[in-house]
Every structure is written in C-alpha cells, then in structure tokens.
Amino acid sequence: MSTTYILRGVRPLGGDPVDVVLADGVISEITAAGEATVPDASHGVTAPGEATVPDGDVVVLDARASDGSGLVLLPGLVDLHTHLREPGREDAETVWSGTRAAAAGGFTAVHAMANTTPVADTAGVVEQVRRLGEEAGWADVHPVGAVTVGLAGERLAELGAMADSAARVRVFSDDGRCVHDPILMRRALEYVKAFDGVVAQHAQEPRLTEGAQMNEGVVSGEIGLTGWPAVAEEAIIARDVLLAEHVGSRLHVCHLSTARSVEIIRWAKSRGVNVTAEVTPHHLILTDELARDYDPVFKVNPPLRTAEDVEAVRQGLADGTIDIVATDHAPHPVEDKDCEWSAAAFGMTGLETALSVVQATMVDTGRLTWADVARVLSTAPARIGRIDDRQGRPLAAGEPANLVLVDPAAHRMIDGSAQVTASANTPFRGMELPGRVVATFLRGRATVLDGVPVDALEGAAR
Amino acid sequence: MKHLLSTADLSKDDAILLLDTAAQMAATQSREIKKLPTLRGRTVVNLFFEDSTRTRISFETAAKRLSADVINFSAKGSSVSKGESLKDTALTLHAMGADAVVVRHHASGAPHMLANAGWLDAAVLNAGDGMHQHPTQALLDAFTIRRHLVGERSGADPVGADLAGLRVAIVGDVLHSRVARSNVHLLHTLGAEVTLVAPPTLLPVGVESWPSRVSYHLDETLEQWQPDAVMMLRVQRERMSGGAGAFFPSPQEYSRTFGLNARRLALAPDHALVMHPGPMNRGLEISADAADHARSVIVEQVANGVAVRMAALYLLLAGGDDSERNTQ
C-alpha cells in the first residue's frame, strides 16, 4: 500500500486554494480547502521532513508559501532537452544524479539527449538509458534517439528500431551537432512520420560557425573571441521550416536564441507549418556581455546573445510563438570549466534553476500566468514528446499524480556546489532567484519533500 | 596598476606615466652600463604558449636590464586535453614564487584568467593573447609616434605629452589583430584619431562601436585623410588559402589594394611615419621600398619595445606604492 498525501490549501495553477488527495499513484480527490478528510489516522499523521515515511501512512502536507498563502500546484515539469551524460561521461552526471536533480527542480520527466558515449543511435543504447532511469526512480526518462549514426551527419540511424524499442523513442536529435545536409534532413523529417516522431534540430550552420566561441557582435569583436553569428542559426531554421512545410512533417527547433529566429518561427506558424520551438532559461535572462570576464561558466551553445534577443525570446514565449522552455541542462566537471575560455566545454546546468528563471523573467513580470507556466514547462513539452498520455496532464481527479508544489514567494541564493546535480557549472551562482520547489510527486510518490530529494530525508532520519 | 592586461584598462594618466617612464628607461640605454639594479632579487617568468622569439627576447632583455631573475617557460599547445592545464601551470609558478608573469597565449582572455582566477598573485603582463590584446606593442607604438611627431613638432621634450590631434591609419587584418585592438584603445585614450583600413572581410562585426573610423580604401585614406602615421598589420598567409572561406581572393589582389609601397606613401604627408609590428611579409602588406624608406621607424619600434617593457615591469613591480609614484 502506498502513502496517501493530503495537500491542504494548495493553489492549482495559482488559482484558489483547494485540498488535493493523492492515493495509489493518482489524484484521487480534489475538495474545497480544508475539507479533505484524513481517512484513517491510525498509522499516525506525519509532517513532511520530520521522519521517514513508511509505506501505508497518511501524510498531511499543510505547508504554506513564504508569504502565508497556499503553495502553487503545477503538473510535474517535463524537460524536452536534458543531457544526462550516461553512458560515457559519468564524471559529469549519471542518469541517477541527473534525474535526482530533475526532481529537485520539479521535473517528473526528462528527455535524455543522444550525445552520449556510445551515442544513443541504436535500440540497445536507448533501452539502456531507459532502464537506468527506471532503476533510479526519480523521474521518467525518455531517451532521445540520434538522427544520424554517431551524430556524424552522414546517414540515418535506425530510427524505426529505436521507435519500436522498449524506450518508445519519439524525439530524434543530433543535438550538439546540426543535421546540416539538406537531403539528410529532408529524409529524417519524412521518415519519422511513420511513427509520429519529431526531429529536434540543433540549428547551427557549421561553415558559418567554425571555431566559434561566443555570439558574434560588439562584445566578441572587442574581446577577440571567434564569433557565432545569429544568421548561422536563422538560416538553418528558415530552411528547416520550409522543408517541413514541403514534406508535411513535424519539426521541433531546439534552444532558439535570436530575435530573427523568433520571427521566422512566427512566420512559419502563420503559414500553418507544423513546427514547435523551445527556448532555454539562460537565453531568457543572460546576455553576451557576461563573456567580458572570460569566465567559461557563461560559454554555451548556442551562445548567450544580446539584450534585444533576450527581449525577443521573452516576447515569443509570451505570445506563444515559442512553445516551451527546455533546460539544455549540460553538466561538466570542474576541470572542463576552470580553464581558458577557448579550451572550455560548452554548456551549463539548468534543471534546478529553470522554474525560478521562468518565474523571474515571465511570471513576476506579468507576461505569463502560472497556467501558462504549466503549459510551457509541462503540457506542451509532453505533447511534443508524445508522452502526454502520462505526463503534462490536467490537475483533475483520476489523473496520474505527477505534480510539483512551488513556493513562489521564496527567494534563494544560487550556489553551484549546493546543487543536486553532480556538476557545479551554473551561470546563476551568486544570483538571488525567486521561487522554490517544495515537493515533487512522481505517480503519487514523493521524490522531493521540503525542497530536498527524499533519499536525503531518509538519510538524515537514520 | 597591478597587472597590464589591456590598453582598454589604462587611464590617460596611466598611459602617459608609462610613456614617460619608458623615456627615462630609454635614456639609460644609451649609457655604457645599461643595467639598473631596480628589480634585483625579483623573479620574472616569461610564460609563452605561442612561439614569439621577438617579443620574448624583448621582455627578457627588459627584465635583465632591470637586474631581475628571468625564467623562460615555453609550453606550446597547452590545454585541458593536451597535458598540463593553464591552472596547474599557474599554481606551479605561484609555488616557485614568481613576482611577475609575462604571458603570451593563443587563447583570448588567458592572461585575464591568470590575473583574476585566484591561481597566483604575481603581476601579470599580457604579451599577446589570441585576437584580444597586446598592450606593450601599442605602448611602444605610441612611444615611437610621440618621440617623432610630438617631440619634433614642439621642439621640446615630449614628457607628459599626449597624442592629441595626430592621425594614425591602421591597415590590414584588423579582424584577427590584437595589435589593432590594443592600438585603437590606447591611441584614442591619448587623444589621437584612428582610421582602420581593411577589406570588409577583415573587419570584425561591431567595429562601428570602436572609437575609430573605418575605410575600405587605402589610397583614399592616405590622400584625403592625411595620416601622420601609417601602421601596417601583418597578414597571415593562411588567411588567403582557406578555399571558400579565404578572406581575400589572392595575395596579389591584397597587395595591389592594401599593400604599402613608396608610390602610395607619397600620397601621405611628408612627415608620415611608416610602422609595422613585425615580422613583416615583404612584398605582401609592405614593399621593400616602404619598409626601408627614410620615414620607416620599424627598426626603432623594436628598440623602443625594450624601454617600454622595462617601464611596465618597473611600474608593476617597483612603482606600485603611492609614495614612490608621487615623487615622480
């Protein structure tokens, strides 16, 4: 028998307070605030965080937000773009540590990118990653399959085998590399239609970005780093939306970062092209000015752009041109960032800060509601990944209890070494961000309580 | 001044102090005994990750003339993937007690990391980093310009003078040039006007935000703008052999359009200086008749480099405290 949770006075999608009861992996009941009855307290009512929670107990979670109001209840977050690094770079992250960080950030499902060693380009590798995720138990792991063998951009990987495998792959991406050959991209877009898949493109024209280190603009010119021009992203996106229109396929654009990329997506959608787009938290808040001190924690691909681009992606997210926020969580060991800029690895962690950055840039500025946050961080990514039968569900009785409780009134100072992920490369370190994940539930089981992964609570109680 | 990383960090007073100190150092170099005891017992490390015999010898000479102990450390191609990291190298130098580290590195920003990452507490002198900065080159260029054009014109010692009103054309591969970046900032700080002359492919995106003019035409600039000095930049031969990615069609076309020769030089004012940071590609960006012209100060630039580097080492290692500075 599993634990029953009674969430008292929580505010679904930021609305009016209700009580929500979680039992047997689903939302069993939603009542008016204070009216959910504790079924049988003979096992004792346990406050969260106080002790271990043995199976069968009833836990009444009556936590309040820092301002005394009810916590915000959202569907568990879904990340369409996570680098879990396993197999191959377990020094940076493992499926276990990465999904634990995901849970701490409020996620109940992640899509694990294919650029591992070996590359996730066969049914065997995607099934291995899937199985590691199930064993870890922190969040559902949906492997992304490589589009081309070895991410080499030369010939299609066995997309059908990955789709038919136990991992049920629906998202295919060479992320980190661009499928730049136009005929190969066309074939991939066409081929995945057979199993309702989607090609998630890392838009980067390779010839325009040879040796590129940061956004090409005023800052790169002054500080002498090779530029990554915006047009290298925009040219590929423009080509891909035209290809997707021509062959009637579904296209997803990863981490778009420039103002003109937003315009191209807006134009394509107005034509009815079946395209979706994502933006990362860091592109919503950080700019290339941060490169001036040559601190490689700000080195990322696509690079941080200008303030005008940041405003454009916020606008695109607010008006629905950009469908989702995805983290591009990219953990790296210290030695790959504690060096000169050009020798450093690209990427930054994001799972534990994504919701806070979205709150800071979009909610606290009045551009998105909490219902919109649920859309861009849960329901829309679940639909793009074709896992919307299990994740990104409505907050209603009978639905799977994949949920996150957020205290939007809290503030926290970001500290890389205090992150749950195995790596410390957060660009937000030293920044105070709003919002805190209080609890995360995966099919009714608490993976995070009081903001701490539940195994840590158990350890503390012992 | 704790470090010398970029000319963009230098105030006008700092820059003039460096030039005036260099003038004092230069005066000592005409004596029979050139060596000064100023930095006796101090250790200067030349940390060169990139080949540069000229710059290394110039710094080594400068440090030795000031009686410092000099250690040459060349570490080609260091990176995380290829052997020792920059961090470990820095920690090693720290453990050895280096007082100053002169660093040349292929990565833009590497000296900035050495100065600011907390790995060592020596003074860091940037001897050229990637496409970013080469501050002592700009200082020696400014020193050379001041000597010839300010000193001669006023007929007085140029000590304390800036370069107000002078015009300098910087010609060639601005995109990849740390010499150009350093000179634009320093010359602007000192009150000179700068025009960058290059084909559009060899100018960085964002150059319009720099404190300089831009021209695509050398003849027009020489004839109509009348520069007081023409600074030619070295063109790397590999820049034109990149196939579709080459920056200009051929060496011949580059030379015809942007190369300096005696005919072109005649378009500039009679007093205009010919400058080049070296090493020169004779016949490409500069012809022999321009390089060896009476108005060429290219060899003198090298000599001035020692005086400027002596000044930089002196001010960073011995001139840091205010009491000493105030007595000057």
UniProtKB/TrEMBL annotation, chain A:
The UniProt record lists the keyword Metal-binding: yes
Chain sites annotated for binding Zn(2+) 1: H81, H83, D175, D328
Residues holding substrate: H83, L84, R85, N115, N301, H332, F346, G347
GO CC term (a single one): cytoplasm
Coiled-coil features, chain-numbered ranges: none
Domain spans labelled Dihydroorotase catalytic: 71-259
Co-factor: note: Binds 2 Zn(2+) ions per subunit.
Gene Ontology biological-process entries: 'de novo' UMP biosynthetic process; purine nucleobase catabolic process
InterPro entries membership: DHOase, DHOase/Allantoinase_Hydrolase, DHOase_cat, Dihydroorotase_CS, Metal-dep_hydrolase_composite, Metal_Hydrolase
A molecular-function term among this protein's GO annotations: dihydroorotase activity
PROSITE patterns: DIHYDROOROTASE_2 (PS00483)
Keyword entries, A-Z: Hydrolase, Metal-binding, Pyrimidine biosynthesis, Zinc
Zinc as UniProt keyword: yes
SUPFAM superfamilies, sorted: Composite domain of metallo-dependent hydrolases (SSF51338), Metallo-dependent hydrolases (SSF51556)
Active site residues per record: D328
EC number: 3.5.2.3
List of residues binding Zn(2+) 2: D175, H202, H255
Superkingdom: Bacteria
Family to which this protein belongs: Belongs to the metallo-dependent hydrolases superfamily. DHOase family. Class I DHOase subfamily.
UniProt xrefs under PANTHER family: ALLANTOINASE (PTHR43668:SF2)
Function of the protein: Catalyzes the reversible cyclization of carbamoyl aspartate to dihydroorotate.
Stated name of the protein: Dihydroorotase
UniProtKB/TrEMBL annotation, chain B:
GO biological process: 'de novo' pyrimidine nucleobase biosynthetic process; 'de novo' UMP biosynthetic process; amino acid metabolic process
Keyword Lyase part of the UniProt annotation: no
Domain Aspartate/ornithine carbamoyltransferase Asp/Orn-binding: 165-316
Pathway note: Pyrimidine metabolism; UMP biosynthesis via de novo pathway; (S)-dihydroorotate from bicarbonate: step 2/3
Annotated Gene Ontology cellular component terms: cytosol
Binding residue positions for L-aspartate: K82, R178, R234
GO MF, one annotated term: amino acid binding
Residues noted as binding carbamoyl phosphate in the record, renumbered to the chain: R54, T55, R104, H134, Q137, G278, P279
Keyword Protease: no
Catalytic activity, EC: 2.1.3.2
Top enzyme class: transferase
Residue ranges of every copy of the Aspartate/ornithine carbamoyltransferase carbamoyl-P binding domain listed in the record: 2-146
Pfam families reported in the protein's UniProt record: OTCace, OTCace_N
Keywords on record: Pyrimidine biosynthesis, Transferase
Substrates-to-products reaction catalysed: carbamoyl phosphate + L-aspartate = N-carbamoyl-L-aspartate + phosphate + H(+)
Family: Belongs to the aspartate/ornithine carbamoyltransferase superfamily. ATCase family.
PANTHER family per the UniProt record, alphabetical: ASPARTATE CARBAMOYLTRANSFERASE, ORNITHINE CARBAMOYLTRANSFERASE, MITOCHONDRIAL
Assembly and oligomerization: Heterododecamer (2C3:3R2) of six catalytic PyrB chains organized as two trimers (C3), and six regulatory PyrI chains organized as three dimers (R2).
The protein's role, per its UniProt record: Catalyzes the condensation of carbamoyl phosphate and aspartate to form carbamoyl aspartate and inorganic phosphate, the committed step in the de novo pyrimidine nucleotide biosynthesis pathway.
Protein name stated in the entry: Aspartate carbamoyltransferase
Source species: Antribacter soli
Lineage of the species this protein comes from: Bacteria, Bacillati, Actinomycetota, Actinomycetes, Micrococcales
